């Protein structure tokens, strides 16, 4: 079980910085949200560069201990979905009573489900195709944040009473 405890370490580090984010999001909400998105971009750029320069695979089960050390377990690589969750949490807190037009809500649902289906299909395709470092780097840098955005939009829609 020790090998899997890296996730507890990453979560603990993120929870330690959460008061800083929550304090600032109360004082300067949009600047804090933009800073969170900026950190997501930096993290995605790191994942892209590390994957591209070291020819790392797309998935954990194909990787080595170096892949795990530099790309799979670092907190700053796992940070984007967590930060996006903080941003969506703020949006839910601020706009819980928002009225979303039916067409916009349907578009959000289609967009979210399309991203999720696309990521699943790309993963299936990547496991069956020849290795391409550019595709692997793009997937490693964008898959987690894209999934978090899709999931966050679904949660936002449901919490605001537009779940279906």
Automatic annotation (TrEMBL):
The chain crosses the membrane at residues 32-52, 72-93, 105-126, 146-163. Residues 1-158 form the Acyltransferase domain. Keywords: Membrane, Transmembrane, Transmembrane helix. It comes from the Eukaryota. GO terms for molecular function: acyltransferase activity, transferring groups other than amino-acyl groups. It holds the Pfam family Acyl_transf_3. This is Acyltransferase 3 domain-containing protein. It comes from Aromia moschata. The lineage of its organism: Eukaryota, Metazoa, Ecdysozoa, Arthropoda, Hexapoda.
């Amino acid at each position: 079980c020790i090998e899997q405890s890296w996730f507890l370490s990453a979560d603990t580090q993120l929870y330690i910085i959460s008061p800083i984010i929550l304090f600032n999001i109360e004082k300067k909400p949009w600047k804090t949200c933009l800073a969170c998105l900026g950190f997501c971009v930096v993290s995605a750029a790191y994942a892209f560069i590390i994957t591209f320069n070291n020819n790392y695979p797309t998935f954990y089960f194909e990787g080595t201990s170096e892949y795990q050390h530099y790309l799979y377990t670092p907190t700053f690589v796992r940070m984007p979905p967590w930060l996006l969750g903080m941003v969506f949490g703020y949006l839910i807190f601020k706009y819980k009573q928002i009225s979303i037009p039916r067409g916009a809500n349907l578009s959000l649902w289609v967009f979210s489900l399309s991203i999720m289906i696309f990521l699943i299909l790309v993963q299936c395709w990547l496991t069956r195709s020849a290795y391409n470092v550019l595709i692997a780097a793009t997937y490693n840098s964008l898959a987690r944040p894209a999934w978090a955005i899709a999931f966050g939009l679904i949660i936002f829609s449901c919490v605001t009473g537009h779940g279906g």
